[in-house]
């Protein structure tokens, strides 16, 4: 009643043993593919973590730099500006991680929150009553009167270019993990598990427990079994090319590090622009939002303080170098894995599974 290991000679197998063998080859094949995948998956997961740490380090640096701008140059509004600054960098971090948000909405929301502070603390420092309605009116007016000139739009453009590649790379790495996990659990067909039993265990039914499959025979069986997996070859090569493109984009003109480190300067220029145009802004705001309560006595608007570069360059340089090195190391490794899915049958037939240095091997029917 044997279905797979049929042979003219006497046999020591039963149908139940064949069923056990089929369960064994399924388990072994999953384990061997997992072992092959392990290094590749380990490298990708490791780099997802490393990139994320480097991103977070750069974001923290940029956020600290922006916070210190308010503390040194715009102290009257520093305390109230802390929350909008924090929100801006949280939004940027979420965008890189793939959240359903845009750089434009994050930056414009920040400037919406910033305008009431700039207006009431720097342009008209005598305002005492900043009610919710008046603050909301200032926020809405910001979009129409554009107090920050072209600086807010420039910041959107610069950040969008550089953060886009980082966001895409983050998503691409997660996709790579998903692909690898899916191939690990690809179900073996009935024909495949029978072919694997015939190759690995049918010799045992003849008492030939030490004989191993011939190399060519193993390759034929494995290629048949893994046809659906090896079909990923073209897409995997394209995936590696896309990773290469994204890492080059990140390192080229749309440099993430430069864009993040320049946020404080863009905000500073935007605030200076608003202060220089204070009288015109006040006239427009008075028409739209009405005149708020003022303190007695005429307080001059806060003096414009040009800000010198914040000196934290050593931290920034380390994070920048670290990210560049990780990019290079990662893409070089991934380029070596280009043929991963094309060569999966060869790799499974390598090592202990087949007979390499002996004159005799199992061809599926007999010892040759």
UniProtKB/TrEMBL annotation:
Source organism, top-level taxon: Eukaryota
Primary location: membrane
PROSITE patterns per record: GLYPICAN
Entry's localization field: Cell membrane
One CC-aspect GO term: plasma membrane
Keyword Lipoprotein: yes
GO biological process, one term: cell migration
UniProtKB keywords: Cell membrane, Glycoprotein, GPI-anchor, Heparan sulfate, Lipoprotein, Membrane, Proteoglycan, Signal
Membrane topology: Lipid-anchor; GPI-anchor
UniProt key word Cell membrane: yes
One Pfam family recorded for the sequence: Glypican
Annotated function: Cell surface proteoglycan.
Name this protein carries in UniProt: GPC5 protein
Source organism of the structure: Machaerirhynchus nigripectus
């Amino acid at each position: 009643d044997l279905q797979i290991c049929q042979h003219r000679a006497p046999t020591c197998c039963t149908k139940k043993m064949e069923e056990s063998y089929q369960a064994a080859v399924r388990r072994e094949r999953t384990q061997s593919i997992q072992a092959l995948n392990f290094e590749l998956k380990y490298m990708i997961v490791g780099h997802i973590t490393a990139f994320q740490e480097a991103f977070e380090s750069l974001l923290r640096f940029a956020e600290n730099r922006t916070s210190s701008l308010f503390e040194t140059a715009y102290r009257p509004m520093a305390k109230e500006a802390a929350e909008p600054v924090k929100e801006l960098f949280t939004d940027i971090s979420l965008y890189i991680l793939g959240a359903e948000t845009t750089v434009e909405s994050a930056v414009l929301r920040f400037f919406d929150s910033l305008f009431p502070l700039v207006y009431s603390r720097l342009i008209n420092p005598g305002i005492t009553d900043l009610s919710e309605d008046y603050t909301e009116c200032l926020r809405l007016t910001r979009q129409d009167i554009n107090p920050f000139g072209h600086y807010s739009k420039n910041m959107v453009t610069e950040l969008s270019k550089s953060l886009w590649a980082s966001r895409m790379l983050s998503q691409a790495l997660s996709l790579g993990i998903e692909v690898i996990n899916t191939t690990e659990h690809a179900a073996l067909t009935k024909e495949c598990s029978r072919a694997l039993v015939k190759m690995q265990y049918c010799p045992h039914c003849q008492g030939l427990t030490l004989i191993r499959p011939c190399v060519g025979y193993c390759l034929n069986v494995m290629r048949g079994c893994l046809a659906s997996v090896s079909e990923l070859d073209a897409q995997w090569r394209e995936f590696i090319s896309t990773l290469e493109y994204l890492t080059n984009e990140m390192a080229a003109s749309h440099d993430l590090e430069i864009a993040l480190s320049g946020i404080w300067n863009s905000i500073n220029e935007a605030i200076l622009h608003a202060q220089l145009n204070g009288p015109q802004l006040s006239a427009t705001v008075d028409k739209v939002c009405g005149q708020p309560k003022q303190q007695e006595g005429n307080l001059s608007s806060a003096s414009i303080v040009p800000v010198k570069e914040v000196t934290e360059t050593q931290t920034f340089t380390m994070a920048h170098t670290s990210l560049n090195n990780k990019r290079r190391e990662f893409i070089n490794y991934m380029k070596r894995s280009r043929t991963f899915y094309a060569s999966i049958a060869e790799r499974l037939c390598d090592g202990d599974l087949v007979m390499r240095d002996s004159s005799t091997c199992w061809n599926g029917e007999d010892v040759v």
